[in-house]
Amino acid sequence: MPSNAKEDFVVEHDGEKYNIGKFLRFHPGGRNTLAALEGKDIAQKLRQYEHSDSALYLMKEYKLRRDARGADDLEKLVDWNKPMLKQVGKLGARYSEWVQSPVDRKLRLFESDFVEKMTVTPWYLIPIIWIPLDVLLLYKGYSDTKQYFEDTYLPPWVLFCFASGFLLWTLLEYSIHRWLFHLHPPDTSPRLITFHFLMHGLHHKVPFDESRLLIPPAPAAIVVVILYCLFYSILPLWMMHYFVAGILAGYVVYDLTHFYLHYGSPRPNTFFYHMKRYHNHHHFTEPDNGYGISCDIWDRVFRTQIYLKKLKFSLRW
């Protein structure tokens, strides 16, 4: 879970000092790869491991001389003391470069406090809101199924429909992430730029803001209703409830997995350990690959897989 504990860890680079203590738990290479570098110059290590431009840009956030980010600082294009949603559309041709240059800050979207609160989601709201609805869908499916099948036929059909819905979610997750969230908006359309930022761009801009990691209940509810109506029109009632329950369960797993990949510390040689490394590479190295969050199966199918290097040691976050 997110922690507010502060930790000093000062390093040097090009004559400047940086306190990266706050970043240690988010470092894609784990905090143990940095353990021996405290108080030392890290220029050689940065060259040795070929850090991306976005990683080097993020490093500026931790410079101890806060007035020395430089004339090329993209953050001068916006005012971080004001709501961001009204500003991003004006970035035009600079938007793509700006949004792919991460910072470690809190982001405010709206002027209204009420509307702003509707856009932030603590992780525990996801199971509180959606698991009871999932149980209700399963119960409705069970009630409808009793009209069509004997009890002996119930378990296989339930498992098939639920599993099919769950699998479909993984494809929806991949498709939405790749072809909607990572669709590059035209420079001449402030509205599409703003829409892109609201949907996903903000997550790449402030990847460590825990309140922006999860989909708020209101927009998620709209998607659930659309999917419910869609499958209501094409599937038998009993099958539809199990199918949608599987999709909803997949969504819950996705959202909580996404949060855990950012803030969790998975053990080496586990599925989540692999996916945390995988998602970190998506953020800081290959934003145009690695669209899977809860799994990488569709990245393999559509050839957008990120190939992780085999390490001589295990990472610790």
UniProtKB/TrEMBL annotation:
Heme binds at H27, H51. GO terms for biological process: fatty acid biosynthetic process. InterPro entries: Cyt_B5-like_heme/steroid-bd, Cyt_B5-like_heme/steroid_sf, Cyt_B5_heme-BS, Fatty_acid_hydroxylase, Scs7. Pathway: Sphingolipid metabolism; Lipid metabolism. It is a multi-pass membrane protein. It comes from the Eukaryota. Zn(2+) binds at H177, H182, H200, H203, H204, H258, H262, H279, H282, H283. It holds the Pfam family FA_hydroxylase. Keywords: Endoplasmic reticulum, Fatty acid biosynthesis, Fatty acid metabolism, Heme, Iron, Lipid biosynthesis, Lipid metabolism, Membrane, Metal-binding, Oxidoreductase, Transmembrane, Transmembrane helix, Zinc. SUPFAM superfamilies: Cytochrome b5-like heme/steroid binding domain. Residues 1-68 form the Cytochrome b5 heme-binding domain. PROSITE patterns: CYTOCHROME_B5_1, CYTOCHROME_B5_2. Its main location: endoplasmic reticulum. Gene3D superfamilies: Cytochrome b5-like heme/steroid binding domain. Plays an essential role in the synthesis of galactosphingolipids of the myelin sheath. Responsible for the synthesis of sphingolipids and glycosphingolipids involved in the formation of epidermal lamellar bodies critical for skin permeability barrier. Belongs to the sterol desaturase family. SCS7 subfamily. This is Fatty acid 2-hydroxylase. The lineage of its organism: Eukaryota, Metazoa, Ecdysozoa, Arthropoda, Hexapoda.
